[in-house]
Amino acid sequence: MPEDHLISPGTILRPRVLRDVSGRSVSIPPAAGQGEDALVHLQFRRFAGCPVCNLHLRSFARRHRELDTAGVREVVLFHSPADELRPHTADLPFAVVADPDKRLYAEFGVESSPRALLDPRAWVPILRAIAFATTGILTGTVRPPAAKPQGGRLGLPADFLIAPDGRVVACKYGAHVDDHWSMDDVLAQARAWRGERSRELVGV
């Protein structure tokens, strides 16, 4: 990971309370009574209706029970206004947070770049996501994105796994639009952290 990224494993994040698009409070790390022993997987996505983002998040929604079992809370950020996000994310079983001013994007060093779309590794995933979105739009199951999404179309993804004490366990800054942790990646990171913590507790 390049040295100029603002956040790296071991970074301690200050506690914060966000509001999801439904107005519910989202504490990072979780506050008392909100699963305070849970890890938080904080995803930075792009704009409301982003085809690659939507397809990616569907994979997390389908396996959400596995996240619960692993003690992982999912929190997803978009750089779109809440009103634009709600129709696209209403059926997701985890918190979605609007950050249209990109304040958290700036704080975490999550950037935009033409390589989000121009990197050849992104082309097949983009075509696959567009095909999925087009089928959904034609059948009325997917809403099209805004013609000119706030924050633009060149955002890069990023993933952060945050421990209950606010320490960043692991993170990934994407090199292109489809360069993000898969569901299996998140579960593996969570298992590794819990295994390490168990060994520390027993003094191994």
From TrEMBL:
<protein>
    <submittedName>
        <fullName>Alkyl hydroperoxide reductase</fullName>
    </submittedName>
</protein>
<dbReference type="InterPro" id="IPR032801">
    <property type="entry name" value="PXL2A/B/C"/>
</dbReference>
<dbReference type="Pfam" id="PF13911">
    <property type="entry name" value="AhpC-TSA_2"/>
</dbReference>
<dbReference type="InterPro" id="IPR036249">
    <property type="entry name" value="Thioredoxin-like_sf"/>
</dbReference>
